[in-house]
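#data-curation
PF: Archiving a pair of folding outputs for the training set. Convention for this channel: one message per protein, sequence first, structure tokens after, nothing in between. First:
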Amino acid sequence: MKLTFLGATHEVTGSCFLLEAVGKKILVDYGMEQGPDTYENAELPVKPADIDMVLLTHAHMDHSGKLPLLYKNGFAGQVFSTTGTADLCEIMLRDSAHIQMFEAEWKNRKGKRAGREAVEPLYDMDDAVGVLSCFVRCEYGKEIRVAEGIRVRFVDAGHLLGSSSIEVWICENGVEKKLVFSGDIGNASQPLICDPQYIESADYVVMESTYGDRSHDAPVDYAVALAEVIQRTFDRGGNVVVPSFAVGRTQEMLYFIRHIKQEKLVKGHDDFEVWVDSPLANEATNIFREHMWSDFDEEARELLRQGVNPIGFTGLKTSITSDDSRRINEDMRPKVILSASGMCDAGRIKHHLKHNLWRPESTVLFVGYQAVGTLGRALLDGTKSVKLFGEEIDVKAEICRLPGISGHADNQGLMRWICAFKEKPEKVFVVHGEDTVCELFTDRLRTEKGLDAYAPYSGTVFDLAAGRFVLMAEPIRIKKEQPSAAAAKVTKAFAKLLAAGQRLIGVIRKNEGGANADLDKFTRQIHELCDKWERID
């Protein structure tokens, strides 16, 4: 009875854990690594053909994206997930296979001219279709006996349609243990989906820590804030271009726009059009519609009882073909354009940016996280021009951001989740967070809650029956060009500066409602400080 940590250890993506008990080998998630990697991940210690089953927390690629590769390499077992997760994987894994095949073909066209050997896609459509045939759909809250001595139950994690925490009961050689894999814990009060459900007991907990070091912005009236952006943009005669993640965020935006239209929060543009220009987003929206009654929260179901589609409204248009996409910008009437990718790195959104970034009357509105190094982050950081399709585009459009409705719980939400356990687990394993975040959150669990918490590195093996580590793996950093000593000092100094800036924002928020004279003085001091440092080259 042992647990091996393979992915999402001291990193956010690539979730993967191997559970071995009662003669069975079980993977919990098998996700892709996305973005920059800090540490090398241990190889899967068993052959894919020897894996008996997979327990899948949800459909996001960093949890499900390597399942077709598992199938390609010999896996023929079962993949247990909720129905919502299985339905989303139907479109997301196919889409991922299409991308893998397209990128391989593109690299081979270029490589052939340079005399390089052909590359193969990580997996192809046959592999995606093959693993999809292995899915077993499960209901929330229902215990399932997946093998002799092993029961599982999926609990709504409130992160994405179909997302779950997974309870696993194991009985082996007279020893019984219960594990809980948190999956990605959702943020409370998200539109459409339910809040995360709490679990009350476990011997061992494998817990995510994505936002274990920060609190989300204070909640705002999202519909009102969005309506203000649409109003001022339409009054100028421009488009509102929204880079939006296809699964989850797009459907939330439709929910808010329906409310805006119903309450007539945008004046003088009653029949404005909203285009969803992403084939994947359109397919995902259809799946959300199919799950309205079963998976939506009470507020959304109340709308359904009133005969209202929570994510549908007059003026909603969908773009399927490339020709459809091009025609959106040929019509000069103001409109909202929702398109992927959410960080502007690929997909149709780049075409809409090309047609709108140079227009002072248009707005590019960000509603999700923009990673360092992405085009979206560059625009938010104030770049004056960007290169799109070989053409230099001046950035004249308004660039703004709405406080994100994060799909992840913040540090307070994570603390509420772990504090719901009525008795302290024997051990809490902290995963799915950046290196420093894992350590910080682990330390908080120890010092503030008195929990036996540990952040394992990839390759760590724990004996669940004996309650001890079999192997405590050492971190293996991915070799990168090392910065000079001077550069390292600059990096640390800049990190301290960022931390100071975050503290300043906290102080500003705490002074809300203060005396006007004090606030004016504080504002002048901040401007004076900014003026000083802007003059320094």
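PF: Second:
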Amino acid sequence: MNASSLLSSTDRPEGGGSDFPERPHAARDGVVTIDTLLEAVAGYNPGAEGLDLIRKAYLMALASHEGQMRQSGDSYINHPLNVAMILAEMKVDTYCLVTALLHDTLEDTSLTPEQIETAFGKKVLQMIDGVTKIGKFHFKKSRAEKQAENFRKMLLSMSEDIRVLLVKLADRLHNMRTIQWLDPAKQKNIAQETLDIYAPLANRLGIGWIKLELEDLSFSVLDPETYADLRARVARKRKERTNYIDQIIRSVSRALAENGIPGRVEGRYKHIYSIYRKMTLQEIPFDEIYDLMGIRVITDTKLHCYGILGLLHGIYKPMSGRIKDFIAVPKSNMYQSLHTTVIAPEGVLVEFQIRTEEMHRVAEEGVAAHWNYKESADGAPAMADLKVVTWLRQLVEWQKELSDNQEFMNSVKLNLFPDEVYVFTPAGDVREMIKGATAIDFAYGIHTEVGHHTVGARVNGRWVPIKTVLESGDVVEIITNPSQTPSKDWLRFVATPRARARIRHWIKEEETRQSADIGLRSLESESQKLHRRWTEFLKPPYLETVLSFSDLPEPTLEDVYSRIGFGRLSAASVLRKLLPEQGGYLLAPSTPVPLKEQIPIVVRGGGKDLLIGLAGCCSPVPGEEIVGYVTRGRGIIVHTADCPNLVHLSLEQDRLVPAVWDSSKDAIFDVHLRVSMEDKPGMLAAVSSVISERGANITHAEVKQAKHRMGVLDFTITVGNLAHLQEIMTRVQHVKGVVRVQRMKTSGDQATHSHF
């Protein structure tokens, strides 16, 4: 038996979402050469042919990048070498390493696709092309049609060969390790993109050590002051607790030996970003993060895993509700372990994770742990049956169904940040769902028609409403009725992209049908004024003119009718064009409502004869991307592009219009802030003072008490623009005792927020 305490802040954390160390990074801790790379590969895949192919790829990359330098002043070839070494640490196959060495050649050198295919085959060329496409996509808040389409193509290439994504993750990791050489603005953009997309992708593939390192590197760029402060606090806590955790490790190791259970024990402190997320999500100060330390026990069999769990509970008192069995029900990224949090000596909470050696290998390497070294002719590993890529294939299917790019990207985000729950059908089949999924989500997961006609559900034998949120272990039976149809209200509580897409599709079709009926009746009524029948206009020479009012590539009468029913086209204007000589029978359009000049907004294509107002739910300010929503009779209401209410308003896409700020006009705007802070005297005065010093007026302030000795301050303040607001939020965040600063937005009865 072996006991060890590994507490270095530079050690590598493991997969599955925990924070334990592993071996040091050769690619980060030393100079990588082709010889060190080949030595690392030979350690796990010693075939001479594969090593020769890697050397051949290196020489081609070296010649192609000759004379190119990185921002740091290093020769460019050092980058692909480091990317390849990161992948070699994951023990990937030869073709993946060849792709890593050549991944920048198509875009940055004169090397041609034909030369690559001749030297290494079509598969390597396709993989390099896939990595290049990912690099061209930038994950910004505002996504143009072309960007979303590029991401769809990227998903398809990833699903066909997961090695494309592995190379891109290694590429991003090395770029983040050397990001200090870029200008500050570019650093922040890359770090935010990494935190939003690439770290979650690494987690979804089960490669938790890449996820955790990307998170910490990104956090250190985005908020260096908070990162440095937390790192210093953790270092002090580590110094205080090193002997303590060593004693626990020795005690557990001794108990294993006395009971004849083989195993080794390891431990370390949580990562900086993990601590920060816990503080912000649970609104607790650093001193109340009681599970900074964790311990892992690795044994040989599942049976011993459960035996060790009982042994630990005999030594320490377990925390109620903090036992998780990811062995019986693995995570979607293949992670398996038993988790339990216990009350150790001195009342300190310590999390234990218990697993076998095989589970440990999968937790370390994720998808790479299942790599098949017996490669086929094109070097493609046998990945078809891996559950870890199921979510990726699901996204590929959804992208075929979701024509709206914003909805598609929302489904991507939801699936990159999953918290799974596991529920059962009455037959005992396990269904994995995201946290917050409801009975109606479960119904749509079974079949679209089941979802459409759901009237209720029985959960664990009890009748429940369809909006009931499901929990792990629930047995769910769906009750349907043929007369039931989807409701727009369902969109307020469904959680899965599948359910949301199906409901929205049904509602859109139903609204189109209803509006077409209204439009047809309007045309028939207008025709009667001219003592004509509308059916007369459904044949030449009139039919072509009628269809010209459709905005579809292949015009239909139903589209013309629905446009009239939605109010985007008037029946009178259609009749005027059909019978211009009789068009004067209609009244002139009503007098437009003048523009409110004090709001500095221009609605594109809307002219100036419109009433414009700001949405109270999101309170947009200059500098934010905005969208106008054409209301019935109230003019245009302007929302922020990320307003939660647009989820519902976008059901009628044609009522959304582009809007921009008019920089020639000045104004002040109300914004709602929430400050979560330690509950101690003087906090209201300190925060109010900082806000006033930055030139903002406080129009409302309210103090609330929260749990865990925390307080909440709700403010309404006036600002000039987004930069002004961000400056205020940053200053408030640095007030001693402040845990989080949020800008509050509302969606119906729910609040959403962005925070620092």
